[in-house]
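Q: How would the structure tokens look for this protein?
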Amino acid sequence: MGTSKQRWRISFHKSPSKQPPIPIEFVCPISGSLMADPVIVSSGHTFERHCVHACKSLSFTPVLPDGSVPDFSTVIPNLALKSTILNFCRSSFLDPPKPINFLTAENLVFTLKATRKPQDATRFNGVRVMQTETELNRVPSHISMSSEESVTPRSGPTYYSSSSASDFETLNPNSFEEDELLVKLKSSQISEQEEAVISFRKLTRTREETRFQLCTPRILSALRVLITSRYVSVQVNSVAALVNLSLENRNKVKILRSGIVPSLIDVLKSGFQESQEHVAGALFSLALDDQNKTAIGVLGALPPLLHALRSESERTRHDSALALYHLTLVQSNRAKLVKLGAVQALLGMVKTGHMMGRILLILCNLAASSEGRAAMLDGGAVECFVCMLRKGEFESESTRENCLAALYGLSHGGLRFKGLAKEAAAEELLIQVEEMGSERAKDKVRKILEVLRQKDEEEEVDWEKLLNSDDDISQARISSS
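A: Here is the predicted structure in token form.
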């Protein structure tokens, strides 16, 4: 029987089923190849590392198929995507991609740059090229241009790649409406800016198709400037309009790739209170799309969202908690939060009853990672959760279930969890909880009890020595770093 299994495996490897298509997000927009060393740039786009360095070396800025323009000022390794690509190759029986060297990348970019016609866009591997920043700065000195205008001149044409043709056709009937709106959004008169963003906010509040049609690179670029306006009405209504746009699922990735998230983060840190409420909602909405989660964390949203949990505004607190919950579904963001010292802060909120249900959801996600478990075990999470279950003072049955789910996540912490649970008399309490909880709660309790009872009859453990062992605690911390 063993021999037949071995023959089956060999046959499977030699004759795999139909190879799945390579996801577009695994391919570098510039090289057109599967990425071996993907990096996230400041605008949230992902490229092969040497392609970014080549673009910077040659002062070259592409325009992507969705019309967005990447910002190469910051380059951060996209480890989550790299791991995902390697897993995809492994499961698809493909050789892992090899990084292209800098000379090859430079030749690609140089060819792309050389084939560009003046005042026109040229496509290469699905990317449209625009004038370099140096060339665009050759304008009469008396004309004042913003940083956004230096990339896309107001008087110049707007370019769309062939992959965005359907969007262009959809927008065409409303081009006059878009142009009219843009004139006011880019006006130097504050009253016209205010009128435009208020009108835009109303326009996108209920009309779903309008949200999609007016979520264009030009409008997003204009909003990016107005979001950080020092005028209350302009800032508030700009962010609120962006929230409306983000409600359309087709817009979520487009908004992130427009480079607007850093501006949102700035407002969350130091904007007007009502604007911060809308920003928390916008980040929550954008975080619902799996493609955005890693990039939002890389762009620096986690620290201000964590701080916003203490906001005076209830709406800001709740939307920030929901944003953090969805962002921590990604391992890279869990690790970042642990390094920020979030565990102690979150446990403190739970102990005081501060948004207990939502905070427990975040802690459940953290408990699913080795770093999060180690920090929570060191921070007294087991004792905290057992104490909560003993008091039974929960907002709802779902909150009780979340508490048990977090405790179950910690149960994967091995001997350290067993020792802490024994010290907190968790087993006796869980037996009582099992008799009165919901079916979901009972299921979690049974799984935790299985862990606590596993091998107890066969092994003698000095729990007191284990709990007081500095070596063990240090080892847990090392594994979380």
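The radius of gyration is 26 Å.

Residues 1-17, 117-173, 477-481 have pLDDT under 50 and may be disordered.

Upvote if useful.
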